[in-house]
Amino acid sequence: MERDLVIIGGGPAGLAAAVAAYDAGVHDVLVIEREAKPGGVLKQCIHNGFGLTRFKESMTGPEYAARFVKETQARGIEIMTNTFVVDLTADKTVTCRNESGIFTVRAKAVILAMGCRERSKGALNIAGTRPAGLFSAGTAQKFVNVYGLLPGKRVVILGSGDIGLIMARRLTLEGAKVECVCEIMPHSSGLRRNIAQCLDDFGIPLYLEHTVTEIHGKERVEGVTIMRVDEQKQPVEGTERYVPCDTVLFSVGLIPENELTKRAGIALDPRTKGAFVDGSRETQAEGIFACGNVLHVHDLVDFVSEEAEIAGIGAAEYIRGGQRAKEYVPAAAGENVTYVLPQRVDASAQRVQKIYFRVRSVMRNAVIKVQAGAYEKRIRKPAVAPGEMEHILLPAGVCGGVKEVRIDVLAAEE
Amino acid sequence: MEEKKMICIECPRGCELTVRTDGKSVDVSGNFCPRGKKYAQAEVVCPRRILTSTVRARYGMIPVRTDGEIKKSEIFRWMERIRAMRIDRDVKQGEVLLTDDDEGIRLIATASYRNEEGDNAAF
Ligand code: SF4
What we know:
The structure holds two protein chains of two kinds.
Chain A lengths: L1 E7 L3 H12 L5 E4 L15 E3 L8 E2 H14 L3 E3 L3 E5 L4 E6 L2 E12 L3 E3 L8 E2 L5 E3 H11 L6 E5 L3 H12 L3 E7 L8 H8 L6 E3 L1 E7 L6 E6 L12 E4 L2 E4 L3 E3 L2 H5 L24 E3 L10 H19 L8 E6 L3 E5 L2 E3 L6 E7 L3 E10 L2 E10 L5 E5 L10 E7 L3
Parallel strand pairs in A: 1-2, 1-8, 2-5, 8-20, 10-15, 11-18, 12-13, 12-18, 13-14, 21-28
Antiparallel strand pairs in A: 3-4, 6-7, 7-8, 9-19, 15-16, 16-17, 21-23, 22-24, 24-27, 25-26, 25-28
Helix pairs in contact in A: 1-2, 1-7, 3-4, 4-5
Chain B lengths: L1 E6 L8 E6 L4 E4 L4 H12 L2 E2 L2 E6 L2 E7 L3 E2 L3 H10 L1 E2 L8 E4 L6 E4 L14
Bound molecules: iron/sulfur cluster.
């Protein structure tokens, strides 16, 4: 089979990319989805708060997904469900498997939109047994929201990622008692609003700089030992506390799912755990683009959609043989910045380029400093946090001839 | 004068609000936009939330939400009613599944559901 554009993944990123590519003039689009329905993880994210940035209304996950599914249907875009992509090569050959067997699709361009999976690391370094009752937060979410099963009655949550916070509320609503949320860092990795509406609303304590050091119980979890940690993240002796519970949820972060990207030999950025990309989200393999959580983990789906549109338009321009960037300028993560994305920008861009980044630590009264040769801009921010992605807008025409674009986050002088 | 700190939950920005009340007037600072002020005032008088949950259907779960904010103090009363429901028919996204008598707030399906075996993942 030959297609103009193949999009791997029918979640929010894949769907938005498909619509954008179609609207940019490429109509032969195939979206490949491994589950029975498109929508990705949004299907199980039944809470509201999606779309606030983009649509100025608060939608639930299924509603947000349905909006994009309808857009693809209105354009007649094909979504092939129950289909796994088993291999991808740098020359854009996609090998798939489904009920009818194994087949290959040769594409003019490919967009990677496989999303991410949950980190399971949290479970590995804890002493004690491995009884029943240990779940990742996302698995628990699927149990409750899709299958209607309650994973347990008394719950401790390790890690304060957004899914963990959302599940603290969800399990409380369903009648479980959430004893506490333990976060090893001095700050939560989740959105502040989720701490307010998911924990504070229900009186669930959040213990910062705390971790679970031991899991007790033979067949089923009976309790955990939690301890305070010092600055080196080492448990402080004498702070042990036993918390009885029958369930432990892990919400210790997400990691881009890049197995196919690696198979295609595409270079990954060790900081984002996703591909290196340019402003149009093209990876280092020509004609292969990436967007959404496979590229870097986003905290808001609104930004996933936005990024997917950039990739969709980029892929369409590539297929149609339009103007392409020839010269690049690296974008560098400066002081207190973990990563920037894209990692390189178009030197001759005649349009505004948006650069996303994450800060390393929580800061009050911060100043974001953007520098590109003679161009310098400072933006004040009342607060920044690692859990909340930031961005800057790089004006057209400032990158010509410069060595790099650099973003620093500094403390405001006052 | 009573002073309280709270996080505005109206948007992902999550502004830290300082709220001062003297029983009659409510003074809000720290809000980036007017919605923060409205939120803080409501929090002091009568906190309200959108409630999202799932309703049990014959072959799966149907995600639902209230179509307006309910009183925070009513959340568990609503949950009891939601948990008692059973659906045994097709449901369209946006369909009303329950109406609250007091305030006219309704519970609506946020995904379509087909009452068939094997078709029970959300929409
Ligand atoms: S005050 Fe406005 S900007 Fe700040 S969190 Fe509330 S709604 Fe968002």
